[in-house]
Write a structure and sequence with these properties.
Blueprint (H helix, E strand, L loop, with lengths): L1 H6 L12 H22 L14 H4 L22 H34 L9 H4 L3 H14 L1 H9 L4 E3 L5 E3 L10 H5 L1 H29 L3 H11 L9 H18 L3
Antiparallel strand pairs: 1-2
Helix pairs in contact: 2-7, 4-6, 6-10, 7-9, 7-11, 9-10
Length: 259
Amino acid sequence: IVFAYTRLLEPMRIRLMDGSKNRAIALIFFYIVFFQTLGIIRQFNLILPNIVAVPWEGVGTYTSGLQLLRPECAGGGTYSNFSVQFVLRTALPLVVGFYFVSAYLLFKYGITKLTARLGLGPKSIWTVGMDPNCTINAYGTLMYTFSIAVLAIAFDLFKCFPHPNGLSSLRVSADVLCSSDEWNQMLAVGILAILIYFVASFSLFTWVCVKAPSQFHDPDFRRRWKFLFVKWLPSRWWFGQVFLMKGVFLNLTLVAFRS
């Protein structure tokens, strides 16, 4: 968290937006987005010609969320239950947010008081703590970079594939039948995930984009919402919303078309 925070502290100014640091960060951003997109396309079960080779299992890790940590192996199998894994997977972005808040509070009320006498310099993060606007930007950068994976988590409960007998199973857990009792138990969690990770987030970012032309002169506004604008041309500051809708439509395609 501290590493991500300190790497994103560069002020957002028009003359710096085309700088080498932002170019490098943007390249990493689009690289990760590309493989997240492949991870979603992997779920379409496409039949590709032999000349095309895609490491589907590898790219799937970009959208696997908590599965990368193999939670089913912990607690003697306690976490192997679908409901538990689904809740843990769905809560992952919120857990990451909790760690950012915890780090901010730890610096504000703990570390800065302990290191104030060490002479680390008036601008050191260990002396002044974490700026709240920059902390929001660091967390937003992480969530924005993995937005396709976060949206995949939100829509996972509604992605089903059909069986010849007329029933259908979840793409992320083939042993769970859609509309079964086990599926219905997680319905509230799935709806809440869509409301938070898509509806609320997209509405907030849209409001920020609307306010940007009149608020961009405010340094606090630029520090807080830098992740929304720094990757796009200043004249196309709103293009991030188009990018987010790409992730939405990718996932909605899997919801709408089951075969």
